[in-house]
């Protein structure tokens, strides 16, 4: 298991990555954006967008580890889900690198 803590990231960054991975915003309710995958509508997630606040680490963890609802076995993922996870991990790694650089 990876011992690194998830960084704080903005909702805008998460939404941007999800959109690059094929998700589109289908509706907003208050400050929550609902995103659905363009070709697999069963893949969906909600991202809270609160001005001036980062996404809580637990919420980011849920977005990253949400099981694929089409799969009967949560340990297997579709290729699209793998690409989404890789994109989100790139955001996490980028945030780790920038926070480490600011500590120097």
Number of DSSP strand runs? 3
What assembly state would you assign to the polypeptide chains in this entry?
Answer: single chain
In the CATH hierarchy, the architecture is 2-Layer Sandwich
> What order do the helices and strands follow?
HEEEHH
Write down the overall geometry.
Answer: globular
How many domains?
1
Cα radius of gyration in angstroms: 14 Å
Secondary structure class reads alpha+beta
Separation of the first and last Cα atoms = 27 Å
Indicate the percent of residues in helices.
40-55%
Largest beta-sheet characterization: 3 strands, antiparallel
The count of helical stretches stands at 3
Can you tell me the CATH topology?
Metal Transport, Frataxin, Chain A
Query: What is the CATH class name?
Result: Alpha Beta
Give the DSSP E fraction (strand runs of 2 or more residues): 15-25%
Outline the low-pLDDT stretches: 67-76
Average pLDDT: 75
CATH homology group: Hypothetical protein
Strand order of the largest sheet: 1-2-3
List key phrases describing it.
single chain, 104 residues, alpha+beta, Metal Transport, Frataxin, Chain A, 3-stranded antiparallel β-sheet, 3 helices, 3 strands, 42% helix, 17% strand, globular
What do you see in this structure?
The protein is of the alpha+beta class and 104 residues long. It has one domain: Hypothetical protein (Metal Transport, Frataxin, Chain A). The chain is 42% helix and 17% strand. It has 3 helices and 3 strands. The protein has helices at residues 11-20, 57-65, 79-103; strands spanning 23-29, 32-37, 44-48. The chain has a 3-stranded antiparallel sheet with strand order 1-2-3, with helices on one face. The relative contact order is 0.20. Mean pLDDT is 75; it is low at 67-76.
